[in-house]
Design a protein that fits this description.
By secondary structure, this protein is an alpha/beta fold. The protein has 19 helices and 13 strands. β8 and β9 form a beta hairpin. The structure holds adenosine-5'-diphosphate and magnesium ion.
């Protein structure tokens, strides 16, 4: 029995090995785990014998085998997911060991660890990468991290926003132009693709690229060649391309607004940056990070974010993602009047947001609203309608009281 337990615990430990080790071991692991009982084990009870170490074979009964099968299932599942990640497209598995990469992304949630793992996988290669994700999720930061951890790190990282310029300007921005190529082209100018030679080009908002430029970009991707506007001489460049979009390019392709061939060229390896509401564990970490960064930048002493303000930050849904959070913190620091970020320093939309889970209002939350209303009305009454006095009684900033009266629609009640 002791030997069986030892054998089982060894197998269990084996199953619990970090997936990164499983990855490193690759196919050999699958062979060990998926193998039928070792044919070299001593012959007694070969049908239900399992060899964990050389020379150690044990007989198991039906219940042992059930347990082993369950453990085997767990192990094969881990191998499956490790393999999936190996193909660079499956980003849903969790590894215990985080890769060491250089980046400026803040976040320790499981979803962010997937991001770091993805970056560490694609960075050393020259593969074209397509980053999906809502606006403000950190696509550009992730692209920079890929470049930073790639062999191209000492060459330029050139970011171009496809939505920021009209078609003709974007074309000359990308490909450059010769003197006199168009009115206003007073001198020859190198394009960004040329300037990025040896490095990485980040094309943001790719879904906005005009059809003529889509065709030209396809050629660059296929041949790494293009011409400056007004020139017939081809220029060769060595660039790695990272694209980003908050549009569903597949849908755009199906609708006909995005070229099929370009879509398939770009979509070699893709990854979706998670929206902030799907990695809530990171909200306060990011808020503290931006508070420290912004107070340093604006030379303001800040001792932290108040518990009430933290609760509101956690409750809000952050449709604008990390960018919105960064702006909310900066605004609170610029407009706030104490050394703490308080609830009243947050924008109304954040403070008045219903709890993020979108649950229907409960009797409890209705009761809380009612007593809030009651307290506010009573304070205003006691202060004879003087808001600053009423705010003092309630212990909130007068601006916050005005906001509450407005958002809770209390004016009609006050007029009575
Ligand atoms: N994980 C993160 N950690 C720290 N800052 C972030 C993170 N994600 C985004 N940001 C910040 O939010 C803003 C928007 O990020 P960006 O990479 O431009 O997003 P996107 O390209 O997806 O719109 C930037 O100021 C960036 O520094
Ligand atoms: Mg962006």
């Amino acid at each position: 029995m002791i030997s069986k337990l030892l054998a089982l615990s060894k197998l269990k430990r084996f199953c619990a090995m970090s997936t990164s080790k499983l990855e490193a071991m690759g196919d050999n692991v699958a062979t060990v785990v998926a193998n039928e009982p070792n044919p070299h084990a001593p012959s007694a009870g070969r049908d239900n014998a399992c060899s964990i170490d050389d020379g150690m074979a044990l007989n198991f009964d039906a219940s042992d085998l059930e347990l082993l099968e369950a453990l085997n299932f767990i192990a094969t599942d881990s191998i499956g997911s490790a393999r999936g990640r190996g193909s660079l497209t499956n980003a849903n598995s969790h590894s215990i060991v985080d890769p060491e990469i250089e980046h400026n992304l803040v976040g320790q949630s499981a979803r962010m660890r997937e991001v770091y793992r993805f970056i560490s996988k694609v960075a050393p290669t020259d593969t074209t990468v397509l980053l999906y994700g809502e606006s403000g999720t950190g696509k550009e930061l992730a692209a920079r991290a890929i470049h930073q951890n790639s062999p191209r790190v000492n060459k330029p990282f050139v970011a171009i926003n496809c939505a920021a310029l009209v078609e003709t300007l974007l074309e000359s921005e990308l490909f450059g132009h010769e003197k006199g190529a168009f009115t206003g082209a007073v001198a020859q100018k190198k394009g960004k693709l040329e300037m990025a030679d040896g490095g990485t080009v980040f094309l943001d908002e790719l879904g906005e690229l005009a059809p003529t430029l889509q065709a030209k970009l396809l050629r660059v991707l296929e041949e790494r060649e293009f011409e400056r506007l007004g020139s017939t001489r081809s220029i060769r460049v060595d660039i790695r391309l990272i694209g980003a979009t908050n549009k569903n390019l597949k849908e755009a392709m199906e609708e006909g607004s995005f070229r099929n061939d370009l879509y398939y060229r770009l979509n070699v390896v893709s990854f979706e940056l998670p929206p902030l509401r799907e990695r809530r564990d990171d909200i306060l970490l990011l808020a503290d990070h931006f508070a420290a960064k912004c107070s340093h930048k604006s030379n303001r002493k800040l001792s932290g974010i108040s518990p009430a303000a933290r609760a509101h930050l956690m409750d809000y849904n952050w449709p604008g993602n990390v960018r919105e959070l960064e702006n909310v913190i900066e605004r609170a620091i610029v407009l706030g009047s104490s050394d703490m970020i308080l609830q009243e320093d947050l924008p109304q939309i954040v403070v008045e947001a219903e709890s993020y889970d979108g649950a229907p209002t409960t009797k409890f939350s209705d009761a809380v609203k009612e007593s809030k209303k009651h307290l506010i009305l009573k304070a205003i009454e006691q202060a004879n309608g003087i808001y600053t006095e009423a705010a003092k009684l309630l212990g909130v900033h007068p601006n916050h009281l005005h906001r509450l009266v407005r958002t809770m629609n209390l004016r009609p009640a006050l007029k009575k």
